[in-house]
Amino acid sequence: MTVTERENLTREIEIFLKAGFSPRYDETKLHFGSSEIWGKFGSLGTELWLDTGSIEDAEALWTREFRALTTNNTLLNREIQTGRYDAIIPEMGELLESHGELSERDKRLEFAFMLNAWHAMRLVERFESWVSVEEHTDLAHDVERAVEYARRYYRLCPERFIVKIPFTPTGLLATRRLAMEGVPINHTLGFSARQNYVAARIARPRFVNVFLGRLNSFVSSNELGSGDMVGEKATLASQTAVREIRKRYGVETRQIGASLRNGQQILDLAGLDVLTMPPKAAQEFLAYNPRPDDITDRTDRLYSAGVNANVDMTKTRLNTLWHISPELVDCVDQLENEDLDSFTPDDLIGFFEEHGCGDVLVRWSDEEREVSTVEGKIPRLANWEEKLASGAIGLDSLMNLAGLCSFAKDQKAMDERVEEVLTAHPVHHV
Q1: I need a surface site. Which of 106, 179, 228, 354 has the fewest CB within 10 A?
Q2: What are the tens digits of pLDDT across the range 395-430?
Q3: pTM for the whole structure
């Protein structure tokens, strides 16, 4: 496909997606009630997001105090698997077929883009919310296409779209370019203060994350302790680092507490920049019947991690979740003196290796990726014990790999669902 042909396709897809899109900014929110309890979080400076792509689940909880909805490959896959969009998929297929031959990869990328955007635009219309939209997982290692699709998302709805890009060497470089253009980026799949320190300083996204619930699950699933407060401790350490970077460097980056598992975590993290909560956790929190006075700023709390006393924090690399080493600070300081905009992902990995921080941005082998894919979201310590103990990888980088592989699995399921629908309803070739 020539450059002109691709531009024509891109333009027609944008027209297709915008047809009938009629958000009523500053009007729709008036149809929802208000909540004193949720409002107390706002008085502490905490934005409230719902971590769901389900319109029905969001409607049961939405009040004027909520600001955003966040979707991801897993959540969108759930919506696609319900058959909700089976009727629109063949129409999308017709549009793609009308522009000649596309590679199988390009078809997957375009369908993922269109379905993410279509769903997100329905959320914007219904709730007048900001919506985090996510790129196809193939783009986690493709700078140019990651930038291209992020720009396309933003053009569709600059008033309400936030683009999610994962923490990878590619993601850091893509986010840096997009942030400089003013595209709001939610730099996702972060698991530690040090990962977010790197992202905030060199990429400067609008948001960074700690997927705290998965950290707690890693500790408990691998019988290292109860896991209580492990993710909370990492999140608050990251919040402290992000606030310092905002103050010192004038960046806009804000901290998200993500992957919440229960209502208590909402209370324990009050005061955080952003809380994105699954509907189940939000409902559990409300079931506690909290009073506004119960909700206080907890960001200065020094939570003790639920890890057994006999666990070596250094060998398991649990310390990488909340500790930012002087070596890493020096590495980033020196990186800022480089022509970073000319770097490739491999250049970035090499720079971290040369400065003693190769455990932050890791060169994963195909075999390691396969192991992680089989494991799922929560790694098995026995498979990684040696590499962790040697310092070759951090626990945060391992959790990041697991998150990427898990999302890729869900993305594949969504891609396959699209193929099933197209097989059942073949498009007319032009």
Answers
A1: 354
A2: 999 999 999 999 999 999 999 999 999 999 876 544
A3: 0.96
